[in-house]
Write a structure and sequence with these properties.
The complex is a heterodimer of chains A (170) and B (316). With 170 residues, chain A is an all-alpha fold. Chain A has helices at residues 2-24, 27-44, 49-71, 74-79, 83-86, 92-111, 114-124, 129-136, 140-169. Helix content of chain B is 38%, strand content 15%. The radius of gyration of chain B is 31 Å and the shape is elongated. Chain B contains eight helices and nine strands. In chain B, α1 packs across α3. Classes of the chains: A mainly alpha (170), B alpha+beta (316). The interface between A and B is large, with 50 and 37 residues.
Chain lengths: 170, 316
């Protein structure tokens, strides 16, 4: 089982960080939480580690979000965004464009319902419909419905923000 | 003709359907232009969603070695166990102390209380009156006597022969009872002592993680990669007589050090929760990368006290 966790650690670490990052929006914090997830997995040795890992990651992200709200840390996270420091080779305009796009996707994800966002992020992390269903409590058949709705709403929300930004610039 | 529901097309494109369902859909699409268009639109929507999510993907480096996670888990488990043990001891001590005080204030229970005190002495951390019954039932109320002084004894030796700070007795006063046992750190090779007055081995004094107002007794330095801040252990003498060790460096290194020090350490010697310290940036072929640095304070003090101290560590 330890070997299984170790193998999953090597193969899933990036996916778990990505999943967590889109919930906490802080690269370092996402990595910290991902490592915490695997520490817990090593201690608990779950029977279905893939689904278990994402379930724990979702719980940790939720706890983190609650704590962040309590401490109003989101302001700090926004001002301490490390993105601009980690790619000194990129041009200023590229970085601005990337940050703008990131902010729009961030806003579009926030516009989704909790369930839609969760299903979409789990799917993007590589979980199967069966695994998503097991984690979210949805029927397997409902995962496709939820995913279809989430994708549509994400793109609509993103396009809406782009249209607003264009209108503001013109 | 029945068209294929949209969610089924999503499941089809996500390869979440059985082989027979796929064949059914493909057969239908081959002869239904409407469903072909819907499939293309769904595929475009799916690709666009993937691209948008990819735009927010963080740059994730290689995961740290698994053994560093294990070391951190061990440190956490130990800290958690210590915390529970201290809580349990405090709770038990408080009950005993309360019982003894109640009996001392009530002359009718004085004899029973004396028997209780003699039969089961309380923990040292929370001494309760051990004076004769006659004293305790006097109108002056209970008197607390100081426990006998007790010499602290070294319990661990440094593996590499580095000189260790004279923690508990270097002020010329004998360590009092209840004072923590002297604890020396176990460090591997590569560490060197540095004169704190000379700036901590090339580290500017302002860069040393220190608790304001406490004398620095020793600075130990472990050099890192060129251009990177070294790993540091700063020893400071706390007013209680114990030595505080502030460990500051990359998260995985600090976690490993904490785990080593807590393994086999005497009861009461513990670590604060690691907290973030200012980041460091190392140059890599892909550009500057932020390293994750933390600091933690180790010492023979209550866990909450160590955490409070760690929060006040000054490091610029």
């Amino acid at each position: 089982m330890a070997d299984e966790i170790e193998r999953l650690y090597q193969t899933m670490y990036t996916s778990v960080v990505r999943f967590l990052y889109r919930k906490v929006w802080d690269e370092d914090r996402a990595e910290d939480l991902a490592q915490e997830v695997f520490i817990r997995a090593l201690a608990h040795r779950p029977e279905k580690p893939r689904a278990w890992i994402f379930a724990v990651a979702a719980n940790l992200a939720r706890d983190e979000a609650r704590a962040a709200v309590r401490r109003k840390r989101h302001l700090t996270l926004l001002t301490n965004d490390p993105v601009t420091l980690s790619r000194p080779m990129a041009s200023a305009s590229d970085m601005v464009e990337r940050d703008e796009q990131m902010a729009k996707v961030h806003g579009a994800l926030d516009a989704l319902s909790e369930r839609d966002r969760n299903v979409l992020l789990l799917w993007d992390s590589g979980l199967s419909y069966t695994e998503i269903a097991a984690q979210t409590g949805l029927a397997v058949g409902a995962v496709g419905t939820t995913l279809a709705r989430a994708r549509k709403r994400l793109v609509e929300a993103y396009d809406k923000q782009e249209a607003e930004a264009s209108a503001a610039h013109s | 003709m029945r068209h294929i529901p949209n969610e089924e097309l999503h499941a089809y494109l996500d390869q979440a359907l059985s082989r027979s369902q796929c064949i059914e859909i493909e057969t239908h699409i081959a002869r239904c232009a409407h469903c072909r268009d819907t499939r293309d639109a769904t595929a475009a929507l799916r690709d666009r969603t993937t691209a948008l999510l990819a735009a927010t993907a963080p740059r994730v480096g290689a995961p740290p070695p698994l053994h560093t996670l294990l070391a951190r888990a061990e440190a956490k488990r130990k800290t958690s166990w210590m915390r529970r043990a201290i809580l349990a001891a405090s709770f038990g001590g408080a009950i005993l102390a309360g019982w003894g005080m109640r009996a001392a204030l009530d002359p009718h229970d004085a004899v029973a209380a004396a028997r209780l005190v003699q039969a089961d002495p309380p923990p040292r951390a929370l001494p309760i009156p051990q004076t004769p019954v006659a004293d305790r039932v006097s109108t002056d109320g209970p008197r607390v006597t100081s426990p006998e002084p007790e010499q602290s004894t070294p319990v661990r030796l440094a593996a590499d022969g580095l000189s260790q700070p004279e923690a508990t007795t270097d002020r010329g006063a004998p360590a009092s009872a209840g004072a923590p046992a002297k604890v020396s750190l176990i460090l591997d090779e590569g560490w060197r002592n540095s004169d704190p007055a000379a700036g901590g081995g090339g580290v500017a004094p302002g860069m040393l993680p220190t608790y304001p107002g406490l004398p620095v007794t020793e600075v130990q330095v472990h050099d890192a990669a060129p251009g990177q801040r070294p790993l540091l252990i700063v020893s400071q003498l706390h007013e209680s007589g114990t030595t505080l060790y502030t460990v500051e460096g990359p998260a995985d290194r600090v976690a490993a050090i904490i785990a080593t020090q807590l393994t086999g350490a005497p009861a009461g010697f513990q670590s604060s929760d690691p907290s973030r310290s200012p980041p460091d940036y190392v140059e890599t072929p892909a550009g500057y990368r932020r390293t994750h640095r933390v600091l933690a304070v180790l010492g023979s003090l209550p866990f909450d006290t160590l955490n409070a101290i760690a929060q006040r560590i000054v490091l610029r």
